[in-house]
Design brief:
Strand content: 25-35%
Helix content: 25-40%
Number of domains: 5
InterPro entries: Beta-barrel_SelB, EF-Tu_GTPase, EFTu-like_2, Elong_fac_SelB-wing-hlx_typ-2, P-loop_NTPase, SelB_WHD4, Small_GTP-bd, T_Tr_GTP-bd_dom
Shape: elongated
Main location: cytoplasm
Number of strands: 35
Low-confidence stretches: 31-44, 65-69
CATH architecture of the largest domain: 3-Layer(aba) Sandwich
Number of helices: 19
GO molecular function: GTP binding; GTPase activity; RNA binding; translation elongation factor activity
Distance between the termini: 75 Å
Largest sheet: 8 strands, antiparallel
Keywords: Cytoplasm, Elongation factor, GTP-binding, Nucleotide-binding, Protein biosynthesis
CATH superfamily of the largest domain: P-loop containing nucleotide triphosphate hydrolases
GO biological process, one term: selenocysteine incorporation
Radius of gyration: 39 Å
């Protein structure tokens, strides 16, 4: 059985004993800043190792409780697997406790334990009152059925029982996914003398190895993981669920900020517009209007933006999930399913929170149609999500599909085995029905062309794809045409593409006159008149002559000497054979005239045509036969 890694969080009101409880559980004082010591409150996130054996490794985050430090609190709980909600026995539920409860619910934290602290300070009867108070506040929250643990951090009462309960709870919990691409939202950046820049955070997903090339997003800075540490101990690899410190080369402390994300893959999307599903707090104090300024906390990032509704213009109280959009002022790194909190910047208030439906939000019209489309995005199965992504983009690589659908590679590969999907070009996926639709469009275009231009051999590829490249990627169009050749739906001759069953031909109503024209040219032998004269004699209208002449040339029925004189192909080939038989490896114009019995009027154009065809090569006054 592989080792499992978890991070738990301590949350609750200021002065309810979170930091003291963390120290009692771990023997680590997480208040490390001078200011924290002086003021006896947590300002930054504190971390400590809680437990480790062959199967489990558990870390603790002590998040600040004071409302002024809500950003750090959100950054801390965004990456945790279980929350210990700390409530002091001598005070009970406080306003900050309620706000923390809301935030934990919005962030999708499902596992929780209620730790009633400072139990040695109050009588046992009072503890029962505190329990009742807490139960009333927890109704309808993720902690509704959470167990209660009575502890006192100074006397160590209940500490071992709490620790054992945390361990047993996590043993039953799903572990974070270490298979996918690595992602670590950065919550601390600092410099270690002699080592350089170090970032710290909770590994959301994937794994990172010492020496691995990474990127700091959204800036796109390329860095290398020079060294890794997990709880101040060197490590060769850090796994999803672990707290990790990573010493980075190729970047300075000033280049990186909290809120940025360290990733190993480009499958994560950089965006400013996200389609979301949100819920709002029950006791929202102020009206939220269309395009109200908001502060979005996602991962460890805090970004200003506006909320955009599509089915209302204001919001006060709403118990149902709302489908809407966040338009942010700065880029973030996110994917489908990521959780976030939105707060009013002034006056400060938690509005609500939710999850990302689509990190690639577009501009939509106000109305029910947009809500219906967002609903489809929200509930879509993997097949529906992949189908929708391919229908929109037409063709995507595995990495691009993962970005757009927020599906891991294993789920994607399983989904793409469905018969409705097609892998081509050794790297891209598309929909079979799109390939069929493109093939049908090309077929229609070629058949229309053949019907209107029966004497032409077909269309070149650029003409076929004209107008289609705005709708489909060139790689997909090329594949459809090549696939059509393999299936013998289409065929090609030189640069032209045609339906495989099509044979260029003279229209029926001009067949007889064309036969007469060719007969007359052939009867005149090598001493022909201008080609235009033959067309006039055959009664072929001027508007048709250009098309018919091209057809006769392309089908090698007549051969031009120049732009005026044309020989019948049979006679041209006889003349070439006669000239070759009656001359040596090289010859002059006089010898050629004698061999073919032609005047200079026809002989010079004839020899120049042989040069142009590569049959002969002129060297001063002589011509040399090419092999």
């Amino acid at each position: 059985m592989s080792k499992r890694y978890f991070t738990i969080g301590m949350a609750g009101h200021i002065d309810h004993g979170k930091t003291t409880l963390t120290k009692a559980l771990t023997n680590v004082d997480t208040d490390r800043l001078k200011e924290e010591k002086e003021r006896q409150i947590s300002i930054e996130l504190g971390f400590a190792p809680l437990y480790e054996d062959d199967e489990l490794q558990i870390s603790v985050i002590d998040v600040p409780g004071h409302e002024r430090f809500i950003r750090q609190m959100i950054a801390g709980v965004a990456g945790i697997d279980l929350v210990v909600l700390v409530v002091a026995a001598d005070e009970g539920v406080m306003p900050q406790t309620r706000e923390h409860l809301d935030i934990l619910g919005f962030l999708g934290i499902k596992a929780g334990i209620i730790a009633i602290t400072k139990v040695d300070r109050v009588e046992e009867e009072f503890i029962d009152l505190v329990k009742d108070d807490i139960l009333g506040e927890l109704e309808g929250t993720v902690f509704e059925n959470a167990p209660f643990m009575m502890v006192d951090s100074l006397s160590k009462k209940g500490i071992e029982e709490l620790k054992a309960h945390i361990i047993e709870t996590l043993k039953e919990q799903e572990v974070r996914d270490s298979r996918g691409a690595f992602r670590l939202p950065i919550d601390q950046v600092f410099t270690v003398k002699g080592q350089g820049t170090v970032v710290r955070g909770t590994v959301y997903e994937g794994t990172v190895e010492e020496g691995q090339q990474l990127k700091v997003m959204p800036k796109g800075l390329e860095v290398r993981a020079r060294q890794l540490q997990v709880h101040h101990k060197p490590a060769s690899t850090a796994f999803a669920g672990q707290r990790a410190a990573i010493n980075l080369s190729g970047v300075s402390r000033e280049d990186i900020e909290r809120g940025e994300v360290l990733v190993s893959s480009e499958q994560f999307i950089v965006t400013r517009t996200i389609d979301v599903a949100i819920k709002v707090v029950e006791d929202l104090e102020y009206l939220v209007k269309q395009r109200t300024p908001i502060k979005c906390h996602i991962g460890t990032a805090e970004v200003m933006g506006r909320i955009v509704f599509f089915d209302r213009n204001e919001l006060k109280e709403e118990s149902d999930e709302i489908l809407c959009q966040l338009r942010l002022e700065e880029e973030i790194v996110t994917k489908r399913g990521d959780r976030f909190i939105i707060r009013r910047p002034s006056p400060q208030e938690t509005i609500g929170g939710g999850w990302v439906i689509d990190p690639r939000g577009n501009k939509y019209r106000f109305g029910e149609q947009t809500i219906s489309e967002l609903e489809k995005k929200k509930v879509g199965t993997p097949v529906e999500r992949v189908t929708a992504a391919l229908f929109e983009a037409k063709s995507l690589s595995m990495v691009e599909l993962s970005k757009r659908t927020a599906l891991d590679e294993e789920t994607l590969r399983s989904t793409l085995m469905g018969e409705e999907f097609l892998f081509y070009n050794s790297k891209e996926y598309t929909l079979k029905k799109l390939v069929e639709a493109i093939e049908d469009d090309i077929t229609d275009k070629l058949e229309d062309f053949h019907r209107e231009n029966p004497m032409r051999p077909g269309l070149n590829k650029a003409e076929i794809l004209s107008g289609m490249q705005e709708m489909f990627p060139k790689s997909l169009l090329d594949f459809v045409i090549e696939n059509g050749f393999q299936k013998e739906v289409f065929s090609r001759k030189d640069q032209y593409v045609k339906m495989s069953t099509f044979v260029p031909h003279v229209p029926k109503n001009w067949e007889k006159r064309t036969e007469n024209l060719l007969l007359e040219i052939k009867q005149d032998g090598l001493k022909v008149r201008y080609l235009t004269d033959y067309f006039k004699d055959a009664g072929i209208p001027e508007k048709l002559t250009g098309e018919l002449k091209r057809y006769l040339e392309e089908q090698r029925i007549i051969m031009p000497l120049d732009d005026q004189y044309y020989w019948h192909i049979d006679l041209f080939e006889e003349a070439v054979a006669k000239l070759r038989n009656h001359t040596g490896s090289e010859f002059e114009v006089g010898e050629a005239k004698e061999a073919v019995d032609l005047s200079r009027k026809y002989m010079i154009p004839f020899l120049e045509r042989l040069d142009a065809m590569g049959l002969t090569k002129r060297i001063e006054n002589k011509r040399v036969w090419r092999k």
